[in-house]
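Translate structure to sequence.
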């Protein structure tokens, strides 16, 4: 089973449809469409259910619009579930009516569907009830008074802690301001005493830092600063801090929470230092340091309380969301059980029904019956295999009887068993030259290499390693060729190789010469590639023509006496064999028929061996076609021959007899490619720019495989068991002598097109 068959088989099982169901096309399309709707709807419900679950889990972090989205998804899920329920009920009702009509397999299908529903409904409902109670209790506990109270008290403790540090910073700053003013420590002569004073107070009050700022400087110069050792590791010199302008104007106290780069915080209390005239002489800044871990914990408490409040607002739709989610899953399980019951019942009853139908066909004499089912190792599969084997044995017995009558004919056709395989090559191409340096890089390459090998833009290969350019299958061939070269000398290595390209095979003569400088150092390689395909092809055709001439000479002479002797025996002794007269008549008739076939084959050999020279003269191509078509229309009533001469060529120089013979050979091949009824279309064409005219013959027959198309014009190659293999070789020879060309391509949707191009010259 290939990839496409496997894919087809998989989809058939997904849709619960047997690949060999005997239904009319309209009913089959309707069932496939219905099952597509069921599968797509089920997947939509599953997808929306997961989306709904995700949104429900993240509701606390999403805006209020997410609640609207949840309601929309819930409503859409309900609609899809109603659609699924309708389709399932429709299938059940259909099964009920099919059972009423007594259709084979409906009783078993009904039992299986009911069994699967019964086995599924009890545990599913129990699971639904337990899960619903668990969800309800969990959500109620989540939004209980104890949880909310704990979060509020934690937030209140955090706020009180911050406020206490703010109050302490102002309190200590106020005391220090009074002491400094009283002792006049801001006087320049008391600078050392001021520094010792604040250092002692930092240690005594367990503060983060004390800083004395000057009010007169715009930059607020620090007069003295003392750090707690823990804070001194986090900051250097001084902390960037400016006193707001309002403090100068209103002479107020000030508290600020300042964040540090390392993640911690400073709670800074600022109190002015007044002189006796109530003027501001400076500022005392008292700082408390909060470590990074403590700040994060405080922020975490605040964020959790905020999230909890937001989640509490969206509490109402959470319970029904999860309940509906469980309901979706429950209904989906019901649906899966019912459809799986249908599927299993179809797999069991389908082969039995096909066996009954196949038995009736065999009883009527039809031995082409074959039952195809999915891969099965059970008793039903064994029964189907045994039935198929029995039919095959009967068919083989009939074929053996027919084969006995054809043995004599087949033995005569064995004379043309041997076929030689030749390569299609390019014509009239120059040698290609490639030079490679010691590292394997291409340094020189000419366009002839591209023409020979079918490559484009060969200049882009320069300075690239040949191993990177060549495909693996060609690289192995090149490396094997290089292994035979003697790099120790300058002797040119010569070898003919065959290169198989995607659409042709080339016979190449390769000349490889190692390059060395005066010192004998290796410089690289020069590779010359010459296409000798056409030369070898000409030699082979000449040899085949000589073989054909000798075969025709040796075989033709004894054929006539053999035929005459058989006819004489038939006339003289036909009435004397009373009991075996029929056998005698059949044997003599076979000899006469086979001799006539050998004569025709000898004539083909003679035509191929002694092809007359073309005698071109001005002729009208459509006229030649019109002369040939009536013969085929009369002989082949089951084929429709159409002729389109809308692009009528002008008068052209060609040999009418040879072109007519080529046309007849091509049409005969098209006729033999059509098995029962078909159509052959012939049209003429004329390309004024290219000065080319000709005709196309298109059929809708069995077509020509790509692997055989390249050898169509070789002598003695044929795709037919009874063909001589010379017809298309003669056609190609005629067209080549007229300096034209012949092309073969596929005809869509099936068949082959032969295109003949001739020079449009008078």
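Result:
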């Amino acid at each position: 089973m290939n990839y496409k068959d496997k894919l087809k088989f998989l989809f058939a099982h997904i849709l619960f449809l047997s690949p060999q169901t005997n239904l009319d096309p309209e009913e089959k399309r309707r069932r496939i469409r219905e099952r597509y709707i069921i599968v797509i709807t089920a997947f939509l419900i599953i997808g929306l259910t997961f989306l709904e679950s995700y949104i429900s889990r993240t509701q606390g972090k999403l805006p209020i619009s997410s609640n609207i989205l949840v309601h929309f998804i819930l409503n859409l899920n309900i609609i899809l579930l109603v659609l699924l329920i309708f389709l399932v009920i429709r299938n059940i009702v259909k099964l009920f009516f099919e059972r009423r009509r007594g259709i084979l397999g409906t009783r078993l299908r009904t039992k299986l569907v009911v069994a699967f529903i019964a086995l599924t409904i009890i545990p599913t409902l129990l699971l639904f009830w337990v899960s619903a109670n668990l969800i309800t209790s969990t959500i109620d506990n989540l939004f209980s008074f104890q949880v909310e109270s704990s979060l509020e008290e934690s937030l209140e403790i955090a706020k009180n802690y911050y406020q206490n540090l703010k109050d302490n910073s102002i309190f200590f700053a106020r005391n220090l301001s009074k002491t400094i003013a009283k002792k006049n420590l801001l006087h320049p002569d008391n600078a050392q005493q001021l520094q010792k004073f604040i250092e002692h107070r930092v240690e005594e009050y367990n503060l983060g830092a004390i800083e004395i700022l000057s009010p007169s400087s715009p930059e607020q110069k620090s007069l003295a600063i003392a750090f707690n050792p823990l804070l001194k590791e986090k900051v250097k010199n001084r902390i960037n801090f400016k006193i707001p302008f309002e403090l100068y104007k209103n002479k107020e106290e000030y508290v600020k929470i300042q964040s540090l780069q390392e993640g911690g915080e400073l709670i800074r209390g600022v109190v002015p230092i007044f002189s006796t005239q109530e003027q501001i002489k400076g500022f005392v800044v008292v700082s408390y340091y909060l470590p990074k871990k403590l700040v994060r914990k405080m922020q975490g408490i605040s964020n959790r309380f905020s999230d909890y409040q937001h989640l509490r607002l969206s509490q109402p739709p959470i319970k029904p969301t999860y309940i509906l989610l469980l309901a979706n899953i429950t209904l989906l399980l019901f649906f899966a059980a019912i459809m799986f019951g249908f599927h299993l019942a179809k797999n069991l009853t389908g082969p039995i029904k096909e066996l009954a139908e196949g038995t009736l066909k065999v009883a009527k004499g039809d031995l082409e019956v074959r039952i195809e089912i999915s891969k099965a190792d059970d008793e039903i599969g064994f029964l189907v295999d045994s039935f198929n084997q029995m039919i095959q044995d009967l068919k083989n017995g009939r074929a053996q009887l027919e084969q006995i009558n054809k043995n004599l004919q087949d033995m005569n056709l064995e004379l043309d068993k041997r076929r030689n395989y030749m390569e299609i090559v390019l014509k009239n191409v120059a040698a290609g030259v490639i030079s490679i340096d010691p590292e394997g890089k291409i340094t020189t390459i000419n366009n002839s290499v591209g023409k020979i090998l079918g490559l484009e833009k060969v200049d882009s290969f320069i300075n690239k390693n040949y191993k990177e350019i060549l495909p693996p299958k060609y690289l192995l061939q090149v490396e094997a060729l290089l292994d035979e070269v003697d790099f120790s000398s300058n002797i040119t290595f010569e070898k003919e190789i065959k290169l198989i390209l995607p659409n042709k095979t080339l016979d190449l003569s390769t000349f490889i010469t190692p390059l060395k400088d005066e010192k004998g150092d290796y410089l690289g390689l020069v590779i010359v590639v010459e296409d000798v395909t056409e030369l070898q092809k000409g030699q082979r055709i000449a040899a085949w023509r000589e073989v054909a001439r000798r075969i025709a000479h040796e075989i033709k002479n004894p054929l006539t006496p053999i035929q005459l002797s058989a006819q004489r025996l038939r006339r003289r002794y036909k009435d004397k064999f009373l009991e075996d007269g029929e056998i005698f008549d059949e044997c003599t008739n076979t000899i006469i028929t086979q001799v006539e076939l050998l004569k025709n084959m000898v004539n083909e050999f003679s035509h191929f061996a002694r092809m007359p020279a073309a005698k071109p003269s001005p002729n009208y191509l459509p006229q030649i076609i019109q002369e040939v078509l009536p013969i085929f229309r009369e002989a082949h009533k089951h084929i429709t021959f159409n002729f389109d001469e809308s692009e009528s060529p002008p008068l052209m120089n060609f040999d009418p007899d040879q072109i007519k013979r080529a046309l007849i050979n091509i049409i005969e091949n098209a006729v033999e490619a059509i098995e029962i009824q078909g159509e052959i279309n012939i049209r003429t064409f004329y390309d004024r720019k290219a000065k080319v005219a000709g005709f196309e013959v298109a059929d809708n027959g069995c077509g020509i495989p790509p692997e055989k198309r390249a050898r169509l014009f070789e002598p003695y190659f044929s795709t037919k068991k009874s063909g001589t293999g010379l017809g298309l070789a003669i056609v190609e020879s005629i067209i080549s002598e007229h300096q034209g060309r012949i092309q073969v391509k596929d005809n869509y949707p099936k068949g082959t097109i032969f295109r003949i191009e001739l020079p449009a010259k008078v």
